[in-house]
């Protein structure tokens, strides 16, 4: 009997935007990859999370509806079970392994997982994302909620729910929320919250003086990646929603219920304490600690160094993409931003290059776009969609946002499942829009 050819094992670490799409793109190339090719996707979490809708989870409260939406329903609108995804691809012979990646042995060509498990590979793809950067500011890691965790989003929602209950029974008098970091995530969360409180005011549940939202930014303006015109429009919208913006202001300490801010004033720097019942930290991202155990070359910021082909520098069998990779634009020299849109584009390059490597043909290089489309939802049925040459705002911007969500789900799932997932989110989240 002829000997069975050895399997060719492709292992993808991380089932986020980058990893999930890499598997999808590899499946499209299944015939070219050959029958011996085995695909394994590994993630510690059972779900793929669609982060752009996370802020909706925090405020999905229907105060007048006695049947409250349960946490599972809320999660269902942004979480896709990886098992279900892999099941859709079952004919393409993909398996999903739940496990915590703890390192890579390059010599042995194995990934080390929790519990002493190992997974052999011939090609490995790093798509592990990042974590929240708290810059060692005392109290932030312990006391603040982050916008990079479904659990935190649900906890914020619980806190808002318990506040409203206590408020209507006269047990709490007011609530103050401080959002640190005015990039898209912090800005959209502040606006969402402003809209949520305004709805409560309109329905006579909350007095306007009894809530406070501060959006604090260390830099000179909010939304630094947007044009001045868009920033001005966003500021206007935030003001309408009762969000006060504090720029040139740094968080220096956080204690339960109290935050210390250092502000640049005309007289110099001033440090003041503010009351803050809820603090949401969206001050930035940093490489995961685990990256150091992957035996890969890192750039000066600690991200994985890659070639324009997205191969890991000095590690022939490895590719890296998404937020964990330090990808630089070949002409401008600028870092590719940490965006889901970038991750999915990179996934097509990685899948193509793995296939080409197997076929022993030259690899393709990636030239990222110079500009990315930014859509910032700003509470209710209002968003600003920045296309560079022009922008749409208000309901038109909101329609772009909703269309982008649906297009993403359609890009990973068959039509019916994609629409179902989108609808799940639409039904529970749009009530607040
Ligand atoms: C609140 C929010 C809103 C956003 N909005 C937008 C937007 O509107 N548009 C846009 O383009 N981008 C947006 N982004 C950015 C976008 O989500 C990221 O750029 C994108 O998720 C990066 O994809 P990734 O696969 O590299 O990382 P991730 O999506 O973070 O995936 C990494 C995966 O690796 C897994 N993992 C990590 N460590 C381990 C380990 N040790 N073992 C096993 N598994 C591990 C994680 O569980 C996760 O599933 C947003 C991000 C956030 C947080």
Summarize the structure.
The protein is an alpha/beta fold.
Mind explaining what this structure looks like?
- By secondary structure, this protein is an alpha/beta fold.
- The chain has two domains: 8-44 and 99-132 and 286-359, FAD/NAD(P)-binding domain (3-Layer(bba) Sandwich); 140-283 and 373-432, FAD/NAD(P)-binding domain (3-Layer(bba) Sandwich), CATH 3.50.50.100.
- 33% of the residues lie in helices and 27% in strands.
- The protein has twelve helices and 26 strands.
- The chain has helices spanning 17-28, 30-33, 54-59, 71-76, 82-88, 140-143, 150-168, 184-202, 228-240, 340-359, 395-412, 415-429; strands at residues 8-13, 37-43, 47-49, 79-81, 94-98, 101-105, 110-113, 118-120, 123-126, 130-132, 145-146, 175-180, 211-216, 243-246, 249-255, 258-265, 268-275, 278-281, 285-287, 304-305, 311-312, 315-320, 325-326, 374-377, 383-386, 391-394.
- The strands form eight sheets. A six-stranded mixed β-sheet has the order 5-2-1-9-22-21.
- A hairpin with a 4-residue loop joins β25 (383-386) and β26 (391-394).
- α11 (395-412) runs antiparallel to α12.
- It is globular and about 80 Å long.
- Residues 63-67 have low confidence and may be disordered.
- The structure holds flavin-adenine dinucleotide.
- Poorly predicted parts: 63-67
Q: Please indicate the percent range of residues in DSSP E strands (runs of 2 or more).
A: 25-35%
User: So how many helices?
Assistant: 12
What is the global morphology? globular
Oligomeric state, counting identical vs distinct chains: single chain
- Describe the largest sheet: 6 strands, mixed
Count structural domains.
Answer: 2
């Amino acid at each position: 009997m002829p000997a069975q050819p050895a399997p060719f094992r492709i292992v993808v670490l991380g089932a986020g935007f980058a990893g999930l799409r890499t598997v999808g793109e590899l499946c499209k190339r299944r015939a070219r990859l050959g029958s011996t090719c085995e695909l394994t996707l590994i993630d510690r979490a059972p779900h793929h999370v669609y982060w752009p809708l996370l802020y909706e989870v925090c405020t999905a409260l229907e105060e007048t509806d006695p049947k409250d939406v349960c946490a599972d329903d809320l999660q269902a609108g942004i979480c896709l079970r990886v098992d279900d995804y892999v099941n859709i691809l079952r004919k393409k012979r993909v398996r999903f392994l739940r496990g915590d990646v703890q390192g890579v042995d390059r010599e042995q060509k194995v990934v080390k997982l929790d519990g002493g498990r190992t997974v052999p590979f011939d090609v490995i793809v790093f798509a592990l994302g990042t974590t929240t950067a708290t810059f060692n500011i005392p109290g932030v890691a312990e006391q603040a909620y982050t916008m990079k965790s479904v659990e935190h989003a649900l906890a914020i929602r619980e806190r808002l729910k318990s506040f409203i209950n206590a408020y209507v029974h006269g047990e709490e008098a007011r609530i103050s929320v401080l959002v640190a970091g005015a990039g898209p995530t912090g800005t959209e969360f502040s606006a969402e919250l402003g809209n949520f409180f305004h709805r409560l005011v309109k329905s006579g549940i909350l007095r306007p003086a009894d809530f406070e939202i501060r959006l604090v930014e260390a830099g000179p303006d909010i939304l630094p990646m947007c044009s001045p015109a868009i920033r001005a429009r966003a500021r206007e919208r935030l003001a309408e929603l009762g969000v006060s913006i504090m720029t040139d202001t740094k968080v220096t300490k956080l204690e339960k219920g109290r935050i210390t801010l250092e502000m640049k004033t005309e007289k110099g720097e001033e440090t003041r304490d503010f009351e803050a019942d809820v603090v949401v930290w969206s001050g930035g991202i940093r490489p995961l600690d685990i990256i150091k155990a992957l035996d890969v070359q890192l750039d000066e910021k600690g991200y994985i160094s890659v070639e324009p082909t997205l191969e890991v520098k000095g590690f022939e069998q490895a590719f890296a993409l998404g937020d964990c990779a330090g990808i630089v634009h070949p002409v401008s020299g600028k870092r590719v931003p940490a965006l889901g849109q970038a991750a999915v584009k990179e996934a097509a390059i990685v899948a193509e290059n793995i296939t080409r490597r197997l076929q022993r043909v030259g690899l393709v290089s990636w030239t990222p776009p110079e500009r990315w489309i930014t859509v910032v939802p700003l509470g209710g049925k209002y968003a600003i969609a920045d296309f560079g040459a022009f922008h749409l705002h208000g309901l038109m911007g909101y329609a772009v946002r909703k269309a982008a969500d649906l297009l993403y789900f359609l890009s990973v799932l068959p039509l019916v499942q994609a629409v179902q997932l989108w609808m799940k989110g639409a039904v529970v989240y749009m009530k607040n829009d």
